[in-house]
Prior knowledge:
Shape: globular
Number of domains: 2
Structural class: alpha/beta
Radius of gyration: 22 Å
Strand order of the largest sheet: 13-14-15-12-11-16-17
Largest sheet: 7 strands, mixed
Bound molecules: NADP nicotinamide-adenine-dinucleotide phosphate, magnesium ion
CATH class of the largest domain: Alpha Beta
CATH topology of the largest domain: Aldehyde Dehydrogenase, Chain A, domain 1
Low-confidence stretches: none
Distance between the termini: 64 Å
Number of helices: 15
Mean pLDDT: 97
Number of strands: 18
Amino acid sequence: MIFEYAPAPESRDVVDIKPSYGLFINGEFVDGSGTPFKTINPASEETLAEIATATEADVDRAVQAARKAFGVWSSLPGSERAKYLFRIARIIQERARELAVLESIDNGKPIRESRDVDLPLVAAHFFYYAGWADKLEYAGYGTTPLGVAGQVIPWNFPLLMLAWKIAPALACGNTVVLKPAETTPLTALLFAEICQQADLPPGVVNIVTGAGETGAAVVGHPEVDKVAFTGSTEVGRLIAKSVAGTNKKVTLELGGKAANIVFDDAALDQAVEGIVTGIFFNQGHVCCAGSRLLVQESIAEELMSSLKRRLSTLRLGDPLDKNTDIGAINSAAQLAKIRELSSAGESEGAERWSPACALPDKGFWFPPTVFTGVSQSHRIAREEIFGPVLSVLTFRTPAEAVEKANNTPYGLSAGVWTEKASRMLWMASKLRAGVVWSNTFNKFDPTSPFGGFKESGYGREGGRHGLEAYLKEIS
Ligand code: NAP
Ligand code: MG
């Protein structure tokens, strides 16, 4: 039964969106030389602001500023760098509400998630790496920074991906030039203001906005010493090619097609919650989303009926409403991709189901969707859909579950639901995935390394391991 409820929208007044934004270079906002572009609110299609485009020449200015700042920043004692990072972390906490509202407006994600997941994790990342800055000699990767890091991030967790990139880079003594995604630049630009507020020395953090070409200029710049990219496997391949044969150190965090595996002895109500978190969190715009549900045949019927009942209670709508579970799809282009792949699922013979769910008239929306009767050859079982769409497959034995779970070019994450610790450990040793969650899903912590196998990329972000990407190898 669906209850009537009173809307509880978070106030937009806590954030001041300017009509236009420049590039953040050498501690100041400056004009870009390219044609500006607009960022919109995907829940309403309203234009939020005009954003500068950085050309190759602008990127060069940013890299030169970062290069100059590197001398100063890398020679500060770690304990001094830590003070800046702690200060940034505290300001993020103080301005968390403002940042969360801005993230939800620009990205479309529910405020419940930006407020309770993204922002606490962003602050936690800065606190965590601030703690490492004066203890690098104990991490085992040396203490020498690389220089200028060129970082390119996607739109699904705009501020969180920024934190994953900037916090370890700065802690190790590097300086950065970061390009946010075209559809979600606003929180990165507010972060630039936070750098000013924290009195971070000019040039330590530079933010250049623009489309793919700006990203290509960042990673291709000859004076960038380190490339850190999170995004699609397709663009990751282009980047790997462009840096091949250079001395640049590279980490790539790419796509995924995770299996969420439920055994017949699992606590089913908990598993249902884990399946929902696995694929409907952030509208499924999650690289490690549990987009393939592998359920043991003997419980498939029971689990599917509980899952469908649960999905009928999800609330889709205004991202700023505190009741909302499912917000807007980030862009028209992403919505088109989800629609195309879902239609392919139907024409390939899978059975499509969605709960009764009214979609708002304006904006980009897709209802929670489940496909049953999916076989391994279907495109919806193989390709990353990056939307609120779950493909359900069944298995009989643990060996079959492992085989099916690993039957993908990706290897970012997996979930295993079982009461038996021995089975859990056996599964974890067999699954070719960077993260295996046990009786939970999509749990993140700055102390835990995250990264992929196979076409999901290479390198680790987070934890002690995350420092390695930003330090010179000890020879
Ligand atoms: P994307 O198209 O690869 O874009 C990622 C970033 O790269 C954006 O800033 C994009 O700019 C930029 N870019 C595009 N072409 C480029 C080029 N030739 N050279 C350099 N930069 C370029 O990915 P997306 O659609 O934004 O993000 C979704 C993907 O990210 C999914 O595949 C998801 O799995 C992956 N992801 C992975 C992780 C992980 O940790 N493994 C985390 C989150 C997301 P524009 O915005 O202007 O296109
Ligand atoms: Mg936007």
